[in-house]
Design goal:
This protein is of the alpha+beta class. The chain folds into two domains: about 150 residues, Glutaredoxin, CATH 3.40.30; about 50 residues, Antioxidant, Horf6, Chain A, domain2 (Antioxidant, Horf6, Chain A, domain 2, 2-Layer Sandwich). About 30% of the residues lie in helices and about 20% in strands. Strands 5-4-3-6-7 form a five-stranded mixed β-sheet. β4, α3 and β5 form a beta-alpha-beta unit. It is elongated.
Amino acid sequence: MEETNVTYQMPRIGDTAPDFEAVTTKGKIKLSEYAKDKWIVLFSHPADFTPVCTTEMSGFAQRRAEFDALNTELIGLSIDSVFSHLAWVNNVRENTGVYFDFPIIADIDMNVSKLYGMLQPNESTTHAVRAVFFIDPSKKIRLIMYYPLNVGRNMDEILRVLNALQTSDKYGVAMPLNWKEGDNVIVPPPTNLDEMQERIDGDYEEKVDFYLVKKKLNN
């Protein structure tokens, strides 16, 4: 029998987030109409009632207040029924006290998984990989993370880059390696001679040369 090569679309940074309507544990949602004026972190997990996924979903739930503080809504997803999702949410709450109080998409038909490239055939054709999409209030994809089935995500890093994206947007700056809130930020590189001279003469907290200048944010 001839083998069929299956490919799935993978959105890119800067793309408008593919729109969808889906059943979730919080009712039906349509992405283009959901959480207006807010950021969205859309993330997939391979399956309900599995150990790594339980730790990850618990991590999102336990740090929900930090996402709220960053004006961000959470949306989970796996290729399970809404009934499986509900049973899992209840089981985890009864056993650990952690409540997944955010929508989890029941992607039985795999429509959303395919739209977002969450199905990667060399890893699995029936389970979504651990993808994370950071979507801004204009519904543009700003950052993408992919993890394999057997490695859990890092919640500190997810919150760090979400904060970095929002800070960059607000102040028109860039973030250096390992940036975290309170650290100096990078002044955009000059695009003309006047800006270059300003970088050379300016009073900055850190300056390697005109092309690498850092300053403290005055919040």
